[in-house]
Amino acid sequence: MTDPIYLDYEGSYRELERLIQQLLEKQIEVLSKDDPDIMNNMNHLAVTYRQLGRLDEAAQMHEQTLEKRKIIPGEDHLHTLTCMTSLALTYRDLGRLDEAVQTQEQVLGKRRKTLQEDHPHTLNSTNNNLALAYRTLGRFDKAAQILEQVLEMLRKILGEVHSWTLVSINNLAMTYGELGRLDEGLNLHQKMLEKRMSILGEKRRHTIQSLEQIGAVGAMVEDSSTKEAPA
Fold this sequence. Notes:
The structure is a single chain. This protein is mainly α. It folds into 2 domains: 1-115, Tetratricopeptide repeat domain (Serine Threonine Protein Phosphatase 5, Tetratricopeptide repeat); 143-231, Tetratricopeptide repeat domain (Serine Threonine Protein Phosphatase 5, Tetratricopeptide repeat), CATH 1.25.40.10. Helices cover 84% and strands 0% of the residues. It contains 10 helices and no strands. The protein is elongated and about 60 Å long. It starts with a helix and ends with a helix.
C-alpha cells in the first residue's frame, strides 16, 4: 500500500509542475526565449522533474538552461552556478557520478573566483555537495578531507551553533562512519546532539534524528569492540 504522505508529496510536485508549465507557455508567447524569467522557470521545472523522479527529463532541461545561462548572464553568474549545482545533483541521482563530481568541481572553482574560498556559500553549498558526490563514488577519504576543511572554516566564520556548521558536523560524522572511524563519528554525533538539544529542545525532529544516529553508531562501536575482544 502506498504511503499517503508520499501521495501528498508527489501530488504537490505534480501541481507545481502544472503551474510552472502554464506560466512558461504564457511567458514564451510574450518574452524572448532567452529572457531570464523563462530560464528561471525552466530551472524550477527541471528541479520539479527531479523531485518527481523524472531524472532524464530533469537533466535534459538543466542542460538546455545551462547552455543559455552561460551566454546570458554569463558563466560565472550566481544563477548559472545554481543551475550547474542542480545539474550535478541530477547527474548524481542518475548514477552519472563522474559527471556529477566534475560539474561540482567546476562550480567550486568558479565560486572561489567570484566569492572567495571562505565565503559561506562556497563553504556550505558547494563544498558539501562536492563532498557528497565523492561519498557517492566511495571516495570517503577525499570527502572527509573536504568536510574537515569546511567545518574548520565554518566554525571560525559562522560559529559552532550555526545551522550550516551543524550540517557540516553531521556530514563529517557520517563520512567517518563510512570510513570505519566509528569513535570519531560517534564523538561528532554527540556534539551535534548537545548543540541541537540546547537550540531546538528534546522533541524537535533534528534532535530526534541525532539521537537515532548516536544509537546506530553506538551499536556499531559496541559490535566492533566485541569482535576485537580476545576469546
